[in-house]
Fold this sequence. Notes:
Blueprint: H1 3-6, E1 38-40, E2 52-58, H2 69-82, E3 90-94, H3 98-110, E4 114-119, H4 124-132, E5 136-140, H5 145-159, E6 164-165, H6 174-190, E7 197-201, H7 206-218, E8 223-229, E9 258-262, H8 264-277, H9 284-298, E10 303-309, H10 320-332
Parallel strand pairs: 2-10, 3-4, 3-6, 4-5, 7-8, 7-10, 8-9
Antiparallel strand pairs: 1-2
Amino acid sequence: xxxxxxxxxxxxxxxxxxxxxxxxxxxxxxxxxxxxxxxxxxxxxxxxxxxxxxxxxxxxxxxxxxxxxxxxxxxxxxxxxxxxxxxxxxxxxxxxxxxxxxxxxxxxxxxxxxxxxxxxxxxxxxxxxxxxxxxxxxxxxxxxxxxxxxxxxxxxxxxxxxxxxxxxxxxxxxxxxxxxxxxxxxxxxxxxxxxxxxxxxxxxxxxxxxxxxxxxxxxxxxxxxxxxxxxxxxxxxxxxxxxxxxxxxxxxxxxxxxxxxxxxxxxxxxxxxxxxxxxxxxxxxxxxxxxxxxxxxxxxxxxxxxxxxxxxxxxxxxxxxxxxxxxxxxxxxxx
Length: 335
């Protein structure tokens, strides 16, 4: 395995090379999408076989701050190539937040106006970041979740279809293609082809589908595992409970080897622990991915389990995730 992907088993910082002082110079912020690092988080699991490693891919280091930069960029580029997106059109899509941020960023970089439909209860940080990129936000009912945003977006598009380009992240094959062409190859290279299990949360399904397909093509024995909210009334923003949701057209459950239900509170607690034990403050979908990865890892005698950490926790500081963090910390460190 590449040492830059995992470091030492003990996590000793001295085992890693110093950062290069010669950072690459790029012509656009869009050139910074992808090539995110893997970090070893094996210390989060006690009692594992010494031949099992847990690696997290830090997608929060994309310029828009999440894994969604990848599909958003691929969808926009495909739209331009096909002529569906051209000057005079507005980019319109529904989102729970991260895809909207990515579309707003890319629209700003490429010179296209962006309008986004999102539930009114998404985090304040996400709303403000989207506004900072100059995008227009149309709010749907938070009680209806991401499905409500999908339906309202369809209504807006129907009224004036010629005015908009809709990337349609739930049904656009460029979404999983982005991960097939970037995320999958990056994981394969970073682990020296030794990855045995891949774990990702289900939102649109693009990450787990596209990455899983690439890894399966490289080694059919790689296990592809989806982390899914345990029930419909969950608090894992950005993830879907498929049995109670509009199922994305790009999601094909038969391609999965396994699906693991994740309780909201358990995912939250893992986020809290990651901050204090590893130095990573991440969003709740990352806690969900870790929960599923831990279940997989505890069953193994040997293997490399790679999971997706979709974003960092700084865009959730106004949500229940952070409020729970404060209470958890009080219980851990009573006065």
